[in-house]
Task: structure prediction
Amino acid sequence: MQRRQVIALGLKAAATVALLPLLPYAASATDAQMADAMKQVLGAMVPKSGRVTIDIPPLAENGNSVPVTVIVESPMTAVDHVKTIYLFSPVNPAPDVAHFHLGPRSGRARVQTSIRLANTQNLHAVAVMSDGSAWMQTAEVIVTLSACVDAG
Result:
């Protein structure tokens, strides 16, 4: 082996090692992180099923921007209204995807946004009401092109 070949081989190896941290890998929250995120929000409350509707495409071709709408059945009066709506993703790197603060002046308990989804998963929407109750709905989303990759 000639000196030039050894130097070229060394440069290729160094470049490969230097680029390894830049390769993306899918990062996801663990079940424990998901439970902790929900416990931080809800404390000892156990959300009931109902009153919450998630409108999200069942098949998302690109996880980088997935439209989602959450609607909560509420009269939105001073006595009975939605205080907060949370979105949780058990597969994304951070399980607490979004939260929205509402009040009786909001008029309707409806929020709409676009979120990033790491992979196929069940998205959870939780609504905390002014009376202290919590309501939850889950929607399955199939993601064909994953988002939320972490580079390091």
Residues 15-26 have pLDDT under 50 and may be disordered. The two ends are 36 Å apart (CA to CA). Helices lie at 3-19, 31-42.
